[in-house]
Amino acid sequence: MSKLKKMIVLELILVVMLAVGIVVRSSVWKGKELDGGTVNTSTLSAEKEFIKWVDFNVSYEALCAAFDWAVKTHDTEHPVDFVELLSFTAAKTGGEFESKALKILKKAASELAEGETTMEELTEDLKYYTYYREAYGAVLDGMVGEFEEEYINEDGEKCFRKVYGLKAFFPLAKGFDYTHYDDFGAGRSYGYQRKHLGHDMMGQIGTPIISIESGYVEVMGWNQYGGWRIGIRSLDGKRYYYYAHLRQNYPFAEGLEEGDLVTAGDVIGYMGHTGYSTKENVNNIEVTHLHWGLELIFDESQKECDNEIWIDVYPLTRFLAKHCQQVEKVEGTREWVRTVRIVDPALEKDPELE
Ligand SMILES: [Zn+2]
User: What is the pLDDT of residue 189?
Assistant: First the structure.
């Protein structure tokens, strides 16, 4: 080996060592931050196993069908699990949701509901079931389940009742007009050539934006692409909801701050067309719309990296239209607030709240 080659090899080794050092240190730091002061030693292992990519192709029809089965069988002897049913179907079809998938889904659901088989039996030899259960769980685990919902009883009093159903909400308040289509992956040119990693919903300035799921406000403020934007992290840490281009001058719900806890269905901000500007509070987007995106995070190293997992949420948005939040105007202000409160058991379980 020539002297030059040796030097290059040596330098490469040094670079690799340095990079490993940085990764280990940053994961320690991240583990520390997440666990509130204690270092999570599992983040020190050299190679962690976690899901690196998810193509979420579950159709609107499949979401609705699985949801109907889950609701219909919830109080029976053989409840069918929403996420498990979709994961089973994906493991059978390789993650494709054409018409064949619906037949598979329905057949399995009816057999499960009749008690003719179990999910363990159905998935025994399905190689990719575990992968799909974890991948789809990261998308859907916070959406369907038990919660308490406010209602007005015969005496006109506000009470709560137990509900099993769609806990997550549609991102726009009920009764506000919008248009949308599947625009995931379309080209965007502001700043640099890139793909559209979210979903645009066109509507009117000031339309109240609703938190789809409960979680922490992780990011709030100005970004040159998203304009006024909010990032909310689900309580299990796996979903990062990104809401962008909020209203000029009055983007966010009154009093909302980074670090706050929001409940699914809360008003978090207002639709606008800010963004595409390094200068703050500028309307540089032609069409008024909400951009919302969903990033999946199986490991904190994925949050901001070259392989971020943003999924196509168009079918999910249509599905969420089953649960819209009604809002009312706060007199004398530009604020709107929710009219129906829920109690989300995911929030109750959070140890930080006790
Ligand atoms: Zn967009």
Answer: 81
The verdict on 109 and 257 lying in the same domain is no
Q: Is residue 169 part of a domain?
A: no
CA of 132 to the centre of ligand 1 (A): 27
Domain count, the chain: 2
- Could you tell me where the DSSP H helices lie in the chain? 3-34, 60-73, 82-93, 99-113, 119-123, 129-140, 314-320, 345-349
Tell me what pLDDT residue 194 has. Answer: 85
The rounded Å distance from CA 243 to ligand 1 centre is 9
Query: Can you give the pLDDT at residue 30?
Result: 35
Residue 8: strand, helix, or coil: helix
Residue 148: other Cβ atoms inside 10 A: 16
Q: How far is the CA of 312 from the centre of ligand 1 (A)?
A: 11
The CA 199 to ligand 1 mean position distance, Å, reads 5
* Cα-to-centroid distance, 117 and ligand 1 (Å): 43
Report how far ligand 1's centroid is from the alpha carbon of 308 (Å). 16
**Residues in the chain, total:** 354
- How many separate helices (H) and strands (E) can be counted in the chain? 8, 16
- For residue 337, the model assigns a pLDDT of 98
Ligand 1 geometric centre to CA of 348 (Å): 33
Q: What is the pLDDT of residue 4?
A: 54
Ligand 1 centroid–CA 276 distance in Å is: 11
Domain containing 291: what range?
A: 187-347
- Residue after which a domain boundary falls, among 141, 176, 196: 141
Domain boundary among 112, 141, 170: 141
The token pair at 196 is 């559209």
Low-confidence ranges of the chain (pLDDT < 50): 1, 14-16, 18-45, 353-354
Would residue 279 count as lying in a domain? yes
Distance 307 CA to ligand 1 centre (A): 19
Measure 202 CA to ligand 1 centroid, in angstroms: 10
Phi, psi at 9, each rounded to 5° = -60, -45
Verify that 215 and 297 share a domain, yes or no. Answer: yes
CA 292 / ligand 1 centre spacing (Å) = 7
